[in-house]
């Protein structure tokens, strides 16, 4: 394992422990606040479609934002993992019943009920373990969002979703890692690298 890979692994362990230690009530309250800020950002930028992750483990809970999007005619897309190629396939989601348990135990679009979409979302909400104020981010190591980044890069707005406890100064990065345009947390909206 190279140096950066090792550093990523250590930071993952450290930050999963921090995120998992947040009490449920605090996590939900912070998620509500982060979703409110994300909705402001979507509204201000007149974004009409968003790729939203379905939360698992102790991630920022995105359900309040999904409901907000449905109420405000913002199209919601959710990803399904193709584990063999580590690609994500995007599906429009209209209600909760269109999800079923999928790869890694994450709720995914049920392909018996839904058709994949070729739509390019105008924004992508990115989950993660650690974020910093340069727009860098550390995920679980599957490279799923990095591959999507390679595919969509400048065609969409990249928004990290964080609990305030997930901010760190330095994140080890490789050349293929996402650079986020915004990181939204319960504390508000952080902006980076906007051309
Ligand atoms: N809600 C949500 N959906 C998502 C992601 C995410 O981070 N959050 N992903 C973002 O990419 C993808 C799933 N990626 C994942 C990658 C690895 C593991 C996982 O369980 N990894 C093991 C460690 C494996 C190892 O170190 O070899 C673990 O954490 O125990 C889970 C999800 C796609 N969907
Ligand atoms: N664009 C890409 N094309 C092919 N492989 C890639 C690409 N981006 C990343 N990878 C591979 O994916 C693996 C995981 O990368 P990394 O550790 O940065 O994941 P991560 O960003 O934490 O995970 P995720 O995006 O799933 O949350 C690495 O082995 C890397 O080589």
Automatic annotation (TrEMBL):
<keyword id="KW-0436">Ligase</keyword>
<dbReference type="InterPro" id="IPR024185">
    <property type="entry name" value="FTHF_cligase-like_sf"/>
</dbReference>
<dbReference type="GO" id="GO:0030272">
    <property type="term" value="F:5-formyltetrahydrofolate cyclo-ligase activity"/>
</dbReference>
<keyword id="KW-0067">ATP-binding</keyword>
<dbReference type="InterPro" id="IPR002698">
    <property type="entry name" value="FTHF_cligase"/>
</dbReference>
<keyword id="KW-0460">Magnesium</keyword>
<keyword id="KW-0547">Nucleotide-binding</keyword>
<keyword id="KW-0479">Metal-binding</keyword>
<comment type="similarity">
    <text>Belongs to the 5-formyltetrahydrofolate cyclo-ligase family.</text>
</comment>
<dbReference type="InterPro" id="IPR037171">
    <property type="entry name" value="NagB/RpiA_transferase-like"/>
</dbReference>
<protein>
    <recommendedName>
        <fullName>5-formyltetrahydrofolate cyclo-ligase</fullName>
        <ecNumber>6.3.3.2</ecNumber>
    </recommendedName>
</protein>
<dbReference type="Pfam" id="PF01812">
    <property type="entry name" value="5-FTHF_cyc-lig"/>
</dbReference>
């Amino acid at each position: 394992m190279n140096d950066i890979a090792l550093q990523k692994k250590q930071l993952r362990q450290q930050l999963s422990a921090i995120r998992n230690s947040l009490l449920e009530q605090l996590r939900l309250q912070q998620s509500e606040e982060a979703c409110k800020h994300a909705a402001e950002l979507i509204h201000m930028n007149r974004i009409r479609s968003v790729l939203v992750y379905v939360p698992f483990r102790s991630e920022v809970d995105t359900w309040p934002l999904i409901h907000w999007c449905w109420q405000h005619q913002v199209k919601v897309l959710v990803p399904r993992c193709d584990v063999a190629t580590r690609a994500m396939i995007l599906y429009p989601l209209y209600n909760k019943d269109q999800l079923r348990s999928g790869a890694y135990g994450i709720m995914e679009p049920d392909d018996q009920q839904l058709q994949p979409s070729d739509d390019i979302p105008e924004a992508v909400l990115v989950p993660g373990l650690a974020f910093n104020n340069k727009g860098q981010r550390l995920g679980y190591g599957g490279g799923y969002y990095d591959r999507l980044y390679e595919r969509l890069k400048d065609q969409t707005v990249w928004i990290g979703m964080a609990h305030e406890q997930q901010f760190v100064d330095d994140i080890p990065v490789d050349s293929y890692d996402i650079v986020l345009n915004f990181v939204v947390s319960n504390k508000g909206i952080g902006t980076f690298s906007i051309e």
